Amino acid sequence: MDRLQRLVNYIPFREVRLPLWVMISGVGGALGLRFAPRERGVSWVVPRWLLAWLLCLAGMFGMAALFMGMKGIPLILVLLIAAVSLPARLARHVWRGGALPEWGCSVRGALAAAWRETGIRGGRDAFLALVLFPITVQRVLRHAWRKLAGDDWYAPGYALATAFLGPFSLWLAERPLRWWWRVPLTLSALPLAAGGVAMQLWRGWWILMLVPFLRQGRWLRAAPWRPKEEGLDARPHGIALEPLDRVALAVMGGLLLLLLVGSPRLRPFAPDAYYHLLVAQRIVETGVVPLWDWWEYAPLGRPHLYAPLVHLLIALFSLPFGGDVVLGLRVLQIFMLPTALFSTWYVVRWIHDARVALLTMLILGADLMFALLAYMALPSILANALLPLLLLMVLRRRLVPAIALLAMMLYAHPGVGGLTVLSLLVFAAWEKDYRRFVLKVIPLGVVLALPWYGHVWAWHAWMGHPMRGVMSGPKAWLFKLFWLMNLNLLIMILAFRGLRYVRWKDASTRLMASLLIGFLPMLISYGGRYFAHTIQWWAFFAAVPVAPLLLRRDRRPILAALLFIVFLAPVAMLGGFGQGGGMPRYQPMVSGYILAPAFALGAGKESDRGSHATPGLLEAAAYIDEHTPPGTILHVAGDASLGVMLAYHARRRIDAAAWPEVRGANYATLLPHYARQDRTGCFVSWDATKLPEGMDSIEVGGLHIALGSTTAP
After folding, report:
1. Contact call for residues 636 and 646 (beta carbons, < 8 A)
2. Running DSSP on this structure, what letter comes out for residue 682?
3. 601 CB neighbour count, 10 Å cutoff
4. Is residue 333's pLDDT more than 60?
5. Is 633:681 a contact under the CB 8 Å cutoff?
6. How many CB atoms lie within 10 A of CB 529?
7. Highest mean pLDDT among 216-220, 355-359, 674-678
């Protein structure tokens, strides 16, 4: 407990130390150290030591309960409430009418400044302020953010809290134009300002929780940049390890060790992982990549168009385990995140220095969405793990490795691989010194990928967006923009700050920025997955303003505080459609580093149904396998997760599919028609009312199963 308290005391944010220490130590630990004896009298020391020992023990149990036994309240919320002691401070100062040194103004001065911000000088101005009330409120909000977060940091926080509507509305309303332009612009700014106020008051208040961290602006300055990059193509691959490099390697090694310990609890996620398992199983059985998916959308099937690299790796890793593709997938789940962190760290370290590389790696691993997708072993994250190495080969002008890596990315994931090609074209247009080299890499890499993409092109008419037929028009575009949105706001605020200080004449900076530009089509069509697949470069830009923290003479306290904050610090995220529905919203977000120890400790509660194969589902799959012939089709009413899990565990075909965007145009009517005519099929559902009428069913493991039929269902 004493060491833990000293670690917390390393945190440079005074407002955070005491409440965070009290909370994570389960209160008992803090009281235990408070009662630890400091006198030498035996009659007094022994009972105090005993009391302190019992309290510290209670604190350890309390800490374990926080990390392992939370129900309903996320750990991140508790840490957030504990860390932010500023509201209580503010209330005390307001009650006393005293000064607020953290904001640099008195309460009366803040109110007077907010009033001046409205620009009201008389009755006419008051009337205009009432008419333009949303714009007036936006001005006050902007001023409040400036006072809260400081001149250096208020702009990104205020913009994100108002979903960018606030600053844009004020920009329109405050343009120095003639009245015939200013009036229509001000009127058009009114609904935008109202929307910004609504976002700030409804969901944006979460971002205020970041203020204690952003207030430390005096420490977050631009890192002293090295001289202009020269001779990158002649620089060797190797790097001389420094102490901070060893810290980075220790963090990644510890993460890998935790994943190895917790590997028995790494399970396939439906429907994604089960689709890849089914393809890998076909490769193990036949020795070739299937070109037709006959086990989904049965009895018709569909062309298999998913890039095959992950399926080949799962099949390859399963060979030492007797062809068990689940264990082959588990190997990928263990190594995917450490590999992506290592490749990103290594390339940034090769380009810059140990400070920026360490911070980039720490910030990247703290992003929850990136960590989750890596634990799911998605093909797109495999492409992301290869991408930094491709950047390295491009900067070093190594033609053959660059071509091979680009082809591997295209075989790993068509979206990430294709947008990488677009990003390289942006880089070639921007950086003329690399133009000829890039224009050699792209066509040769694409040519190597043609054997697969020729097959894809032959069946391209089958492909579409997952939202095809669900909605159209502006609503569909809005939905796509916020679909699967998981945006780490702290990383983005730091990245916006870092964009001001990087050396834009460097080829490496331009290459990373080209990736942010080239991947923008993913933001329009795939929403938040854009940030999940560009977070590596946002993490680099976010590391730049934080790097000076590690320039101090005694870096150990600062490094300990950074590690502590990255691993446990509460942050806010922007969530969108696909994560519970509803409008985009701000909500607390736990660090991605929490997941590995959670797997190792066995924390978390299994749900009765969902994305994992529960014992009940396995029991039902065994029943189906025993009581139906191999050619039986399982009708699961389009439930993709349930369907693919049963397809794998029961070894039967299904009339649903993991990826509805690859489907024949008339399948929506043909498949229900075949289901109605199938007298020997097996109908499965969590809900007995969804089974066809006139069929006898049995409940196995919570699933309702109807076998065969004597009359058309």
Report:
1. yes
2. E
3. 15
4. yes
5. yes
6. 23
7. 355-359
**Distance between CA atoms of residues 116 and 130, nearest Å:** 15
**What's the predicted TM-score (pTM) here?**
0.78
Residues whose CB falls within 8 Å of the CB of residue 390, separated by 6 or more in sequence, listed in order: 402, 405, 406, 409, 420
Question: For residue 191, what are the contacts with CB-CB under 8 A and spacing of at least 6?
Answer: 134
Distance in angstroms (rounded) separating the CA atoms of residues 5 and 26: 12
Element (H, E) at 349: helix 325-351
| Burial class for 499, CB neighbours closer than 10 Å (0-12, 13-18, 19+) | middle
Burial class (CB in 10 A: 0-12, 13-18, 19+), 198: middle
The whole-angstrom separation of Cα 484 and Cα 579 is 6
pLDDT digits (tens, 9 = 90+) for 263-277: 988 889 888 899 999
Q: Which pair of structure tokens corresponds to residue 491? A: 């990383």
Q: What is the DSSP letter of 458?
A: H
Token pair of 666, please? Answer: 């008339």
H-type alpha helices, 554-614 = 555-568, 595-601
Cβ-contact 569, 213 below 8 angstroms:
yes
Q: Are 99 and 147 in contact (CB under 8 A)?
A: no
Summarised one tens digit per residue, pLDDT across range 100-158 is: 444 333 344 545 555 665 666 666 666 666 777 888 888 888 888 887 777 767 787 88
Nearest of 490, 577, 561, 502 to residue 206 by alpha carbon:
490
Query: Which pair of structure tokens corresponds to residue 314?
Result: 């799962």
**pLDDT tens-place string over residues 437-459:** 999 999 999 999 999 999 999 99
Residue 580 sits at φ, ψ, to 5 deg, of 110, -5
Q: What is the 3-state composition of the chain as percent helix, strand, coil, each rounded to the nearest 5?
A: 65, 5, 30
Name beta bridge partners: 487.
574
pLDDT of residue 402: 97
Contacts of 585 (CB under 8 A, 6+ apart): 203, 574, 575, 576
| 224 Cβ neighbours under 8 A, 6+ residues apart | 548, 551
Instruction: Look at residues 649, 654, 611, 612 and name the one whose alpha carbon lies nearest to residue 632.
Output: 654
Q: Which amino acid is at 569?
A: A
Give per-residue pLDDT as tens, 229-248. 667 777 888 888 998 999 99
Q: What is the tens place of the pLDDT at every residue in 336-392?
A: 999 999 999 999 999 988 999 999 999 999 998 899 999 999 999 999 999 999 999
Q: How many residues make up the chain in this entry?
A: 713
Residue among 268, 164, 145 nearest 215 (CA): 145
